[in-house]
Amino acid sequence: MIYAIVMAGGRGTRLKTPVEKPLFKLHNKPLIKYVLDNLDSSKLIEKVIIATSPNTPETCEYIKNFNYDILDTPGVDFVHDLSFILDHFEAISSEDILLFINADLPFISGECIDYILEYYFKSGRDALSTLIPVGIFEDLGLEYEFEYKGLVPVGVNILKSINKIQDETQLVIEKEELAFNINTLQDAGIADRLYF
Predict the structure, then answer these.
(1) Which of 130, 137, 125 is nearest to 176 (CA)?
(2) Which of 86, 119, 75, 65 is nearest to 5 (CA)?
(3) In this structure, is the dihedral angle defined by the CA atoms of residues 45, 146, 85 and 60, taken in order, positive or negative?
(4) For residue 100, which of 74, 85, 127, 134 sits 20 to 30 Å off, Cα-Cα?
């Protein structure tokens, strides 16, 4: 089974709004709804699971309006929640594929998600991380948290459903829509200007 796990349990403190980050709206549509619509247009994703936490109770209520399963994580931090999710799925099967995507990535299309999955399957590795060149962020005027050798992780990763260190490949994609991880109001303003 190929699952998409939407990570929607973070505090989103950098956005500096009273709204939970997954529910922050671009053009009257919550960020998480863009992600869900894009996942629904994927030809390869078989099931979508929303990973919420005690940090995002309103997001959890919002998701109940749709036909998605919810997995409530502890909400300690990304690494802790990732381990919790891997334990959960490993108890069911160690053969599933889990595509993790942050709830604040509104512009990654279903077609792009399928491209990432196809690259993953061709690689023969257990895990994949998706990155884009730092220059794309700089050209757009977007901030980023982490950079390694000129590359920035974009918040889309694939793992097998086993909680251990996995042999990983990297996919570098030069697409500006992958840079829009809406962390700040400035990010939202640039996205609004370029995409609407």
Answers:
(1) 137
(2) 86
(3) negative
(4) 134
Pairing of strands 151-160, 29-30: unpaired
Q: If we measure between CA atoms, which residue out of 129, 140, 137 comes closest to residue 101?
A: 129
* CB-count burial class (<10 Å; 0-12, 13-18, 19+) for 67: exposed
- Tokens 């279903």 identify what position? 110
21 alpha-carbon distance from chain centroid: 13
CATH number at residue 164: 3.90.550.10
Residue type, position 112, single letter: C
Tell me the two tokens of residue 185.
């109001």
Q: Which domain holds residue 90?
A: 2-195
Q: Could you read off the pLDDT of 47-73 as tens digits, one per residue?
A: 999 999 999 999 999 999 998 999 999
Name the domain count of the chain: 1
Per-residue b/e over 165-192, b at no fewer than 16 CB within 10 Å?
eeeeeebebeeebbbbbbbeeebbebbe
- Tell if the pTM clears 0.70, that is, is over it: yes
